[in-house]
Amino acid sequence: MIGRLNHVAIAVPDLEAASAQYANTLGAKVNPPQDEPDHGVTVVFIELPNTKIELLYPLGENSPIQGFLDKNPSGGIHHICYEVDDILAARDKLKSEGARVLGTGEPKIGAHGKPVLFLHPKDFNGCLIELEQV
Ligand SMILES: C[C@@H](C(=O)O)C(=O)SCCNC(=O)CCNC(=O)[C@H](O)C(C)(C)COP(=O)(O)OP(=O)(O)OC[C@H]1O[C@@H](n2cnc3c(N)ncnc32)[C@H](O)[C@@H]1OP(=O)(O)O
Ligand SMILES: [Co+2]
Q1: pLDDT per position as a tens digit, 90-127
Q2: Which of 15, 43, 61, 79 best tests ligand 1's pocket when mutated (most atoms within 8 Å of CB)?
Q3: What are the residue boundaries of the VOC domain, all occurrences included (predicted)?
Q4: pLDDT 10s digits, 13-55
């Protein structure tokens, strides 16, 4: 059901410093910051030859990443995003197998303009999973 790895997301305490580090120290192609108010985050995408890295920083008062950053003040890997062909079929299969779909259970439009859903980390070995329909 899952296909390619779309991105690995890293929550960071300083978006500008992390972006500069990826651009200058690691020599990666770093895009400008994008505010995603529907998701409570500002994101910076880093393009690698085989996947993307998504730097995440809280946006607004109820950011879903604030608790994670409070627990991990120097940052950390926050989620991985797998591509799926049919997000509603994937959601229904996962729910029928007991996985918890976060939020309302309805896909939101993600940073790439495509539908996304999140699965509870406690149901997947401590790893928060994002599904993106491509
Ligand atoms: C723009 C878009 C895109 O790419 O298109 C994005 O990625 S938006 C990316 C941001 N959006 C999201 O993350 C949306 C989905 N996320 C959420 O709904 C939330 O972040 C939750 C995953 C439910 C966690 O919420 P919150 O931190 O408030 O809950 P909590 O403190 O009660 O956490 C419950 C337990 O899960 C753990 N926990 C929390 N976040 C975790 C994470 N990212 N990875 C692994 N474990 C995690 C906590 O340590 C705790 O474990 P213990 O009980 O053992 O201490
Ligand atoms: Co993401």
Answers
A1: 999 999 999 999 999 999 999 999 999 999 999 999 99
A2: 79
A3: 4-134
A4: 999 999 999 999 999 999 999 999 999 999 999 999 999 999 9
Half-sphere exposure (Cβ direction) of 84: Cα atoms closer than 13 Å: 21
Closest ligand by atom to 102 CA: 1
Nearest CA to ligand 1 atom 17: 64
ipTM for the predicted complex: 0.98
Superfamily of domain 2-133: 2,3-Dihydroxybiphenyl 1,2-Dioxygenase, domain 1 (3.10.180.10)
Taking the CA of 108 as reference, the closest ligand is 1
Q: Whose CA is nearest to atom 54 of ligand 1?
A: 122
pLDDT digits 0-9 by tens, 68-96: 999 999 999 999 999 999 999 999 999 99
Domain boundaries, the chain: 2-133
Q: Residue holding tokens 């972006």? A: 19
